[in-house]
Amino acid sequence: MAPLLLGLLSTTPSLAWAAPVSRTITVDCHGRGDVRTVQSAVDSVPDGNRDWIKIHVMAGTYWEKVSIPKQKGYILLEGDGSSTTDISFDARAHAGIDDIMGRPNVTVDEQSPTFQSATFTVLADNFVARGIAFKNTYRAPDDQLSKENQAVAALVGGDKSAFYACEFHGFQDTLCDFQGRHYFRGCQVRGAVDFVFGFGQSIYEDCALVSDMPPGPQPGWVTAHARVAAGSPGGLVFKGGAVQAAGAAQGQGQTYLGRAWNAFAAVVFYRTRMDGVVVPQGWQAWNAAGNVWSVTFAELECTGPGSEMSRRVGWEKRLTEEEVQRFVDIRFIDDGWLSNQP
């Protein structure tokens, strides 16, 4: 089945799109813009910026690593469409990702293997991306599930970031939803191993999660959340959208919906269509083994052959209506910042 990139629906949130753009920087790899590289455009944004600046990236493949540091906020990164505009690279981490995961007091260290492998990194608050793809093309020919093969397509480490009609392509650890509040709408995330992971507090609305796990005895994992305490912020919420296979069913491995990186991991699927690629157990305890009752893994009103609940792990959460609304309501992430973006 071809990957599904779901369209933008007018459900929640209700956005005013009121914030003006102060200026536009055009990037064209063929030399017909202001600059030729995305990083050059980012570098031209003044430190401490408080006015929205649009970086318009014209169609093409931009083979570079791009980093938006925390002092360069209020950037709107806009492509000519995620099927025609992409930022790509093929770097991988040369060590595991324990450098950022599993610790209660995480500091952002741009020298960590996770950060070094990322094709695109945004650490600034107040960021928007529309109509562009982020790709890490690295895929080891052997030992594909080892930590040494972590290859991040995008790392989102600032607060108040939103992505619309974007694509994220990788194999292992595609999208690092590192920390902060984030909103994804009409996006596609493709990978095989923990392809959405981190401490983030995020809603993914009408997004396609496409498993590229090869056939074999080892299933993949869609998510790996890392909340470390009951009172800590964080959680990955998938509203609508789909979990599906990248290839034909007979040539496709299966996938878990997620595994717990830490004992208070929180992942919720709500009204999501699940193809038969999902393993019957649904979830894996991983680092929460022996303490699974502190994990919040839940599915509500999902459809499709992969949503059959009869063989799910016994510790999957049964949420009350109040608990469901706490996760799926846009106020889980938004206190007004979404309507103040351009």
- CATH fold call: Pectate Lyase C-like
Count of extended strands: 26
**Major beta sheet summary:** 10 strands, parallel
Which structural class fits the helix and strand makeup? mainly beta
Radius of gyration: 19 Å
As a percent range, the share of helical residues equals: under 10%
CATH superfamily: Single-stranded right-handed beta-helix, Pectin lyase-like
User: Counting H and I runs of at least 4 residues, what is the number of helices?
Assistant: 3
Instruction: Tell me which CATH architecture applies here.
Output: 3 Solenoid
Give the C-level CATH assignment. Mainly Beta
Shape: globular
Distance between the termini: 35 Å
Estimate nothing, just give the exact number of structural domains: 1
Short description, anyone?
By secondary structure, the protein is mostly beta strands.
Question: What can you tell me about this protein's structure?
Answer:
By secondary structure, this protein is mostly beta strands. It has a single domain (23-137, 148-340), classed as Pectate Lyase C-like (3 Solenoid). 6% of the residues lie in helices and 32% in strands. The chain contains 3 helices and 26 strands. The strands form 3 sheets. Strands 1-2-5-8-11-14-17-20-23-26 form a 10-stranded parallel beta sheet. An 8-stranded parallel beta sheet has the order 3-6-9-12-15-18-21-24, with no helix packed on it. Helix 1 links the parallel strand 1 (23-27) and strand 2 (53-57). It is globular and about 55 Å long. The two termini are 35 Å apart. Mean pLDDT is 90; it is low at 1-11 and 102-106.
